[in-house]
Every structure is written in C-alpha cells, then in structure tokens.
C-alpha cells in the first residue's frame, strides 16, 4: 500500500470522530453551544440559519448542505434569527444520549453535529494548523462526497440498523477526513508548515519516502531525485513549503514517533533509538532532549504520572 503521510498525522493525533446528536427546528429559534476543548463539526441538512461565534463580529450564513468544522475554543450560537434569545444546548441535549431534538415550531431545519477528539499530547500537531472555521459550502465540488456521507449517517441513525452505532462512528470519521480534504483543495495558499507540505505534489514523493522509512539515513540527493529536482532546488522548495529543511522535517517526525512510543509502549529506550535510525541510545537521547527539551526516560516518567 502507498505510504500516506496525511494518514500518519491523523493516526499520531489519534483523531476520533463522534456523532453527538442533532436537532430539527422551525420558526424563530436560537441555541448556544459551549466552548469545546475538541474540534466541533456541524452539518445543516435542511433549511438555513446563522452561525455566530463568540468574539467574532460577523455572523456566517449557513445553507442546506453546508458543513462546518470549528477548531476555535469558543462558544457559538446557531439561530434562525440572531435577535432571538438563545437557549443553552445543555438544557436540551443529554450528555449521555445522542439523539435529534426539536427546537421552536416546525422542522424546516435539520442539523447533525459531532466532535473530534484529539490526543492530549500530540493532537496539537493537527489542531494548531487549522483555521478557526472551515466552511464547506453545498455548492462546492468537495460537498458531493460529504452529502453522500451525511445521507448515509442520517439513514444509519433513523433506520436503527444492526451495527448502526459503529457505522455512525466510521461515517463521522470519514466526514472529518473529507472536511480536511476540502480545506486542502479549496482554501487557497496555506501557511508554511506540514499541512501545506502534505498538499504539495512536488515534494510529496520525498515525504512518502521519509514517512515510509523514518529510520533510514536519508540523503538529500535521494530525496531530491525522488522529487525530480536538483538538490538545491529541492531544499529551497521544501523549506519554502514546510518551513524547515527536509532533514529537519525528518528529525521532527522521528521525535513525534518517539513521543508516542514513550507514552504508549514499554519498549526500552535503546531499542526505540535503533528503531528510529540512531546508532546508540545516547545519540537518540541527545537528539530527543535537544528537540523536545527533556530526556526520553524523564519524558516517559512524566507521561505516566499524567495518565
């Protein structure tokens, strides 16, 4: 199977999507959602409404078929009328029951929402590069797949099919991935960093090599050849897109993998060092401390205390 750096990042961040519920609404209505410490996604399947995020001056118009992803930790309001007094989401949604509730009078609007949990230690790798709001509009080319996924999600939740809970979770995960794909394809020039690097087709072959075998002592000539560029052109292009030189990117990726292993596994530091391409435990420990700011054994001890 082809190495997929984007999937590697999602796995490292341990992104897990969950459908939390939804609502139908009609007439004049407004509902306030609290600030989440998770990514929040919302899809309007029917009708239209407004989104007003706390601290942002302008409201956003949401039409049927639009899908949102909010990464900012702020409360927000969904409303048919911004002048309406919002009710608090906690008063209508049970924290332990995922269901569709009714607001106002009628059912002109239908919304389905959920959230994405990220690993507390490595989730920032993803959350920190996302804009406060990703708005995939129904008229965009990327919305076609999202619409199919959302239709399937509604079907699973209303038909009470066997395995509906698991199927809903898997569909929510696919919806999250499709939102990120839409962001990569339609957002225009991204800021310098790994997210922009993953969307750059010219350096993609080199990224696949490094992610496929991070323990290998990759040479710039090999990576440049895979990207069909001269060494100089490749280094300049890579740094302009990723923000760091190629071998620094490789070092940083190794350290991310090391952090995950130190938190989740009992592998000896010496064995971990060898698995990441270091010839000795001391060489690995020095690189880890220089990059992360703490020795690997100390990092493991602190991680276990936090569990």
Count of DSSP H/I helices: 12
Total number of distinct structural domains:
2
Main sheet record: 6 strands, mixed
User: Rounded to an integer, what's the Rg over CA atoms?
Assistant: 22 Å
Query: Percent range for helical residues?
Result: 40-55%
> CA-to-CA gap between the ends?
34 Å
Global morphology: elongated
Unreliable stretches, pLDDT < 50, 5 or more residues?
Answer: none
- DSSP, total strands: 11
* Known CATH architecture of the largest domain: Sandwich
* CATH-defined topology of the largest domain: Jelly Rolls
- The class by helix and strand makeup works out as alpha+beta
Reading off the top of the CATH hierarchy, the class of the largest domain is best stated as: Mainly Beta
- By CATH, the superfamily of the largest domain comes out as Regulatory protein AraC
Provide the β-strand percentage band.
15-25%
Can you list the strand order of the major beta sheet?
9-1-10-3-6-11
Provide mean pLDDT, rounded.
89
Walk me through the topology:
Elements: H1 5-13, E1 16-26, E2 30-33, E3 39-46, E4 48-53, E5 60-63, E6 67-70, E7 76-79, E8 87-88, E9 100-104, E10 109-117, H2 124-127, E11 133-136, H3 143-159, H4 164-186, H5 194-198, H6 204-212, H7 220-226, H8 231-242, H9 246-264, H10 269-275, H11 281-292, H12 296-306
Parallel strand pairs: 1-9, 2-8
Antiparallel strand pairs: 1-10, 2-7, 3-6, 3-10, 4-5, 4-7, 6-11
Helix pairs in contact: 3-4, 6-7, 7-8, 9-11, 9-12, 10-11
């Amino acid at each position: 199977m082809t190495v997929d750096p984007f999937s590697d990042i999602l796995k490292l961040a341990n992104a897990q999507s969950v459908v939390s519920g939804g609502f139908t609404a009609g007439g004049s209505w407004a509902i306030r959602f609290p600030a989440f410490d998770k990514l929040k996604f919302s899809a309007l399947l029917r009708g239209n409404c407004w989104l007003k995020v706390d601290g942002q001056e302008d409201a956003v118009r949401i039409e049927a078929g639009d899908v949102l992803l909010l990464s900012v930790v702020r409360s927000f309001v969904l409303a048919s009328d911004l002048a309406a007094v919002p009710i608090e989401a906690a008063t209508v949604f049970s924290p332990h029951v995922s269901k569709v509730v009714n607001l106002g009078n009628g059912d002109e609007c239908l919304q389905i929402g959920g959230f994405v949990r990220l690993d507390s230690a490595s989730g920032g790798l993803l959350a920190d590069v996302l804009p406060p709001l990703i708005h995939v509009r129904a008229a965009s080319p990327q919305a076609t797949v999202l619409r199919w996924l959302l239709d399937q999600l509604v079907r699973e939740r209303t038909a009470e099919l066997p395995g509906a809970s698991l199927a809903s979770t898997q569909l929510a995960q696919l919806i999250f991935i499709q939102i990120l794909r839409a962001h990569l394809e339609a957002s225009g020039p991204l800021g310098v960093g790994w997210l922009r690097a993953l969307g750059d087709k010219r350096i993609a072959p080199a990224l696949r090599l490094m992610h496929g075998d991070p323990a290998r002592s990759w040479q710039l000539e090999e990576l440049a050849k895979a990207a069909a560029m001269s060494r100089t052109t490749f280094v300049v292009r890579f740094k302009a897109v990723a923000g760091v030189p190629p071998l620094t990117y490789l070092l940083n990726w190794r350290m991310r993998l090391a952090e995950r292993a130190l938190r989740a596994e009992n592998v000896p530091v010496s064995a971990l060092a060898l698995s990441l391409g270091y010839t000795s435990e001391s060489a690995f420990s020095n690189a880890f401390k220089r990059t992360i700011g703490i020795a690997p054994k100390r990092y493991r001890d602190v991680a276990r205390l936090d569990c």
